[in-house]
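Below is just one:
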Amino acid sequence: MFVQDAEVQRLNTLVVQYCKIRKKRRQMVSINQAETAIREVMPNLPVSGEAFELIIAACAAEHGLAILFDGNGSYGPQERN
């Protein structure tokens, strides 16, 4: 249990660092690009893909960044039938 908690904390730290860099560069956050960059450092994520996307989006929003929902489980506007 503790190992998984430590891994989730490490993941959160990586996401925050990514968002801080984007904010410093005044760039938006692409879910897909963020996922690719973070998976290079941490290939085995302790959360599911959808949860990971939500973590990225929440962190980007907390930092006041625009978000491009271009990931596999994109949570942006959905098409209506």
Remarks:
- Helices lie at 2-24, 31-41, 49-62.
- The longest helix spans residues 2-24.
